Amino acid sequence: MSLIIIGTVAFDAIETPFGKTDKIVGGAATYASLAASYFYNKTKIVAVVGDDFKKEDIALLENHGVDTEGLQIKEGEKSFFWSGKYHNDMNSRDTLVTELNVLEHFDPIIPESYQDCEYLMLGNLTPQIQRTVIERLNKRPKLIVLDTMNFWMDIMMDDLLETIKLVDVLTINDSEARQLSGEYSLVKAANKILTMGPKYLIIKKGEHGALLFHEDKIFSAPALPLADVFDPTGAGDTFAGGFIGYLAQVGTVNFNNMKNALIYGSALASFCVEKFGTERLLELDKTTIAARLQQFVSLSSFEITQD
Amino acid sequence: MSLIIIGTVAFDAIETPFGKTDKIVGGAATYASLAASYFYNKTKIVAVVGDDFKKEDIALLENHGVDTEGLQIKEGEKSFFWSGKYHNDMNSRDTLVTELNVLEHFDPIIPESYQDCEYLMLGNLTPQIQRTVIERLNKRPKLIVLDTMNFWMDIMMDDLLETIKLVDVLTINDSEARQLSGEYSLVKAANKILTMGPKYLIIKKGEHGALLFHEDKIFSAPALPLADVFDPTGAGDTFAGGFIGYLAQVGTVNFNNMKNALIYGSALASFCVEKFGTERLLELDKTTIAARLQQFVSLSSFEITQD
């Protein structure tokens, strides 16, 4: 039994009002697998890099117990590279450079040892690649989580809808939920999207937290208000990784565990933004995470004292 | 012992994508006192109207046990009138007409029978009028809540700061918190504002809920996601009225009761937007409110199952 995370492993160069980095290790699968590793010790990744990706870069993941057998290294090619600059409010950013490189012809190969997959996180990639991974697993995982974005809605909606049909949980942000459903109200948007395949929908609202929809039930997870957001890169992927990592650990998929999983994901995401790139994610421990989880309890607990 | 609410009692004409109204009874003190009346039966208002305000309009309030002795009726003058049109997203609106009328020379007279005031809600008015009310009370109330808006920050910040110094709780929205503090991060904004006088700060975020700050503690109240928002007019005032009405009922001011009060206020506000104007607020009962409060419990409860 294992958790497989497919997504980008990449180099990022990031500029925020607090400073800038040279090329550092990033990518959705990097953030998500590091986050998941704190909750589940059989986390495996499927991804591709070029030969510019160093042994010590891979060690970042392996030191956290992440299985990298499914990480293809393409000789003579370069890793996916993204560079971006955040505005002062940290809520918007300009993409300065996107070099697909190895990602252009990415064929997600599933090692034989990954066929025990029970939990599958399909990070943001083309809907075809995401679908290919599902098809290449001999047995359908117990839970498939799909992350996607407006870009695929803009240019290949039909393909995306085909892939969405196959998954259990969809994670998108509020404007993407509106785009996908054609509904402005998030409740109406969710009701429509829950007829497209997924049984659970997570709508990410950044600093405003996240909403989970399932049947006629709704859960609202708060975001931890932070004095400083140092670098928001990877926060959404960290959230998704913490979410599925917690569920894989618990081993039972139901609405209650899903609610808790949103809090675990949110807690990990709140660490992610405290330093540049993966830096903060690399140095966590169980005690630090437990204290942060208690902050989420204080943040949202109240009592109905009358009726 | 009583709860006094000062604010506008007015006529509104509202247009939303769902329809439009003729002149209907509105105003901050109307919404807030109706909301408070469900939790506390000694709610009194201080406000002014013209002789166009009918007996049956006043009866709307009195039927809910709201004491209107402090409602001045100016013969030969007209009531404050506001007309607005909401855009399709319901998050923005155009003001079509604002006629101050009686409000232009409003002198808030406190009836002798109001001198037992323990809880005071200063609805959005000029900072001078708000301050006058505090000065005219023989004894400082146990709790003073102040609502204000960006308009007063734009044109009379010094006056506003003088009034803010005198209160216990300030309620503003997120952009107003940023304007008042000069800080973008809401945590930093709150830390600054909590040095300006108020011991508690409530930041209202509309469909994203509300945050309560006190010392180094934060509470995040979710908003109930709704399929249809019919008319947002008065939701913020309803929230404030439910908030202080609950606190007046409980009778003890502390952070825990304040947290609960935010949920009670949010629950009342979630009703307010379901119909035009005060319509939904007028027809509530304890059972309906108790069921809505339970929805807030389901919406935000989770469990930390490990550490």
UniProtKB/TrEMBL annotation, chains A, B:
Boundaries of every Carbohydrate kinase PfkB domain copy: 20-279
Molecular function (Gene Ontology), one example: kinase activity
UniProt xrefs under Pfam families: PfkB
SUPFAM superfamilies reported in the protein's UniProt record: Ribokinase-like
Cellular compartments per GO CC: cytosol
The entry's keywords: Kinase, Transferase
Protein name in the entry: Sugar kinase
Organism for this UniProt entry: Pedobacter frigiditerrae
